[in-house]
Write a structure and sequence with these properties.
- InterPro entries: 3-OH-isobutyrate_DH-rel_CS (IPR002204), 6-PGluconate_DH-like_C_sf (IPR008927), 6PGD_dom2 (IPR013328), 6PGDH_NADP-bd (IPR006115), HIBADH-like_NADP-bd (IPR029154), HIBADH-related (IPR015815), NAD(P)-bd_dom_sf (IPR036291).
- The chain has a 6-stranded parallel β-sheet with strand order 3-2-1-4-5-6. Strands 7-8-9 form a 3-stranded mixed β-sheet.
- The protein starts with a strand and ends in a 5-residue tail after the last helix.
- Helix 8 packs across helix 10, helix 8 crosses helix 11 and helix 8 packs parallel to helix 13.
- The longest helix has 29 residues.
- 53% of the residues lie in helices and 14% in strands.
- The protein has 2 domains: 161 residues, Rossmann fold; 122 residues, N-(1-d-carboxylethyl)-l-norvaline Dehydrogenase, domain 2 (Orthogonal Bundle), CATH 1.10.1040.10.
- It is of the alpha/beta class.
- It is built from 13 helices and 9 strands.
- Helix 2 links the parallel strand 2 and strand 3.
- The model has no long low-confidence stretch (mean pLDDT 98).
- Bound molecules: NADPH dihydro-nicotinamide-adenine-dinucleotide phosphate.
- The site of NADPH dihydro-nicotinamide-adenine-dinucleotide phosphate has 25 residues, from helix 4, strand 7 and helix 6.
Length: 294
């Protein structure tokens, strides 16, 4: 029997692990779960037929999935799991992590005959609940093919290159989210000050070349409604944009717009709050413009 393990039952990890469990029933596999706050793992086991386990137990699994805030937390659990890892295992890190951490972690794990894949996801909490996430994978293609049947939370899986490239693509994708969110917020704040009805303005923009997921979905559903439902933390988006800036530096590239949005998101995170939904960054733009985007 194959043993799968999932560490990190947060907004993304809990529904992802639930899909693993549903799929595992047909595959002669079992799913162990671990969470820092242990009660969440026990509740997950009750609700989804997974098994709450210790770090030593999850470390001995055939396939280890992690979905933690950053690569730093992955390092923390890796340190504790190291003595218990099983040669031949694969570690699939679904965290939106750092490319340099991936390179180091892959080398450390390879020394114990464990293969590391950086496999961050996009699609949000709704995509996780529906099992339709896009997974962007860096690392050995054959290792990805071996674990592909277990990626039950995925709607699309793309091998993007060597170790670290999955994290790199994720960081750039989310920096682009930051750009459209921020720029659309600025545009709407200006239009609001000019006395334009913002629902009407968005109706035009969404039928025109200025549209994006931010203008079509995020801002109408979360900002105009003033709901700001906390599904993806502003602090996590700021972290991702920061990784894109680090990537720019590491390849000696020039991406001033991405750097700018990373700095703006970091400032918004401090003023608005890291745990707020990422769309609450627009409250900072509202303050800059003494207006409300509604
Ligand atoms: P959450 O904050 O909802 O969950 C974080 C998880 O990490 C929890 O299980 C938490 O445990 C655990 N954790 C936090 N700190 C530690 C630690 N020091 N040691 C061990 N475990 C820890 O985050 P998300 O699920 O939203 O995000 C997870 C990853 O997925 C991030 O990298 C994020 O950028 C990415 N992502 C998020 C998306 C979203 O829409 N939310 C979309 C795509 C990617 P505990 O329960 O004890 O707090």
């Amino acid at each position: 029997m194959t043993t799968l393990a999932f560490l990190g039952l947060g907004a993304m990890g809990a529904p992802m692990a639930a899909h693993l469990a549903t799929h595992a029933r047909d595959q002669q596999a079992r799913v162990l779960v671990w969470n820092r706050t242990a009660g969440k793992a026990e509740a997950h086991a009750q609700a989804h037929g997974t098994q709450a386990a210790t770090l030593a137990q999850v470390a001995a699994a055939d396939v280890i999935f992690t979905c933690l805030p950053t690569s730093a937390e992955v390092d923390e659990v890796l340190d504790q799991m190291r003595p218990h890892l099983r040669p031949g295992a694969t570690w699939v890190d679904c965290t939106s992590g750092h490319p340099e951490a991936a390179t180091r972690q892959a080398a450390e794990l390879a020394a114990q005959q464990v293969t590391f894949l950086d496999a961050p996801v996009s699609g949000g909490t709704v995509g996780a609940q529906q099992g339709r996430l896009t997974v962007m994978v860096g690392g050995n293609a054959a290792a990805l093919d071996a674990v592909r049947p277990h990626l039950a939370f995925a709607g699309k899986v793309v091998h993007v290159g060597d170790t670290g490239t999955g994290f790199a693509v994720k960081a750039v994708n989310n920096a682009l989210l930051g750009v459209t969110l921020w720029a659309t917020g600025e545009g709407l704040a200006v239009l609001g000050r000019a006395g334009v009805n913002l629902s009407a303005a968005l109706e035009v923009i969404n039928a025109s070349s200025g549209r994006s997921n931010s203008s079509e979905n995020l801002i109408p559903q979360r900002v105009l409604t003033r709901e700001f439902p906390a599904t993806f933390a502003l602090g996590l988006l700021a972290k991702d944009a920061g990784i894109a800036t680090d990537l720019t530096q590491s390849v000696q590239g020039s991406a001033p717009v991405l750097a700018q949005v990373a700095a703006l998101l970091r400032a918004a995170q401090r003023v608005v709050g890291a745990q707020e939904d990422h769309t609450a960054a627009l409250k900072f733009i509202e303050a800059m413009n003494e207006t409300v985007i509604q």
